[in-house]
Specification:
With 238 residues, the chain is of the alpha/beta class. It contains 7 helices and 9 strands, in the order E-E-H-E-H-E-H-E-H-E-H-E-H-E-H-E. The model has no long low-confidence stretch (mean pLDDT 92).
């Protein structure tokens, strides 16, 4: 998205992601933007939303790409939308970062090296962080194996467990709902170990040394990128 910077850049995204959008002039939760009102012709607030959307010179959207009726209404209203698919085509083998970067480059030249970065500038500590969950049980390395790894790591450094807001209960786990504050905490770790999850990608983006464990998902498409990232495939679910 940084490739799309202009005199003014505003990002509408998932509520949880808003704190991470620090490169734009403004960011807001897409759920509160009112854009969903475009699918309801007779409703209060619709004209306000249309007027706000018309105030932009260009709108790059992954929202509504798969909804033909939404795209048709946008065309009918003459709104300056450009739609892109939200996910790489199945079987393409294209890494997700390359996929999104190519979309951005189709709009504006960009010299980005396709490594997502979040700049936190936190001092490194002698600390290992383990996040044993993900968005799907099929992607999770067995918890008992994580516990075995933690026991070995604890011989050389303290270990802290980490869990996301929707993860199962885990005794002693650190839970930080604000993703910017979570990013800052992860940036202090000397090592991070986790499955294919958003938190793993966040750890990689802040430059923490990462060991990413892949089971059901394809690391050729979804592995985090970075000089300090190592990926291991344990073969579960494939």
């Amino acid at each position: 998205m940084e490739c799309l910077r202009a005199d003014y850049l505003e990002v509408w995204t998932a509520s949880a992601h808003v704190p991470l959008v620090r490169f734009a002039n403004a960011a807001r939760p897409i759920a509160s933007s009112g854009i969903d009102l475009l699918g309801i012709r007779e409703t209060s607030g619709l004209e306000r939303v249309i007027g706000e959307l018309r105030s932009f010179d260009s709108i790059v959207s992954w929202y509504g790409t798969g909804r033909e009726e939404f795209r048709e209404l946008v065309r009918e209203l003459g709104l300056p939308f450009q739609f892109f698919p939200a996910l790489p085509a199945q079987g393409s083998g294209t890494h997700a970062t390359d996929f999104y970067l190519e979309q951005a480059r189709s709009i504006a030249p960009c010299e980005c090296d396709a490594v997502p970065r979040i700049r936190c500038h936190e001092a490194r500590e002698n600390l290992a962080v383990i996040h044993p969950f993900s968005g799907s049980p099929r992607k999770n390395w067995p918890l008992e194996k994580f516990r075995g790894m933690a026991a070995k790591l604890e011989r050389v450094m303290p270990v802290r467990w980490c869990a996301g807001a929707e993860d199962p209960p885990l005794e002693g786990a650190v839970r930080i709902d604000d993703l910017w504050e979570l990013a800052r905490w992860l940036a202090r770790a000397r090592l991070y170990v986790g499955n294919d999850s958003g938190i793993t990608h966040l750890a990689a983006a802040v430059g923490t040394p990462v060991l990413a464990l892949f089971g059901a998902s394809d690391p050729r498409i979804w592995a985090p990128r970075g000089e300090n990232v190592r990926v291991a495939w344990w073969g579960g679910g494939r």
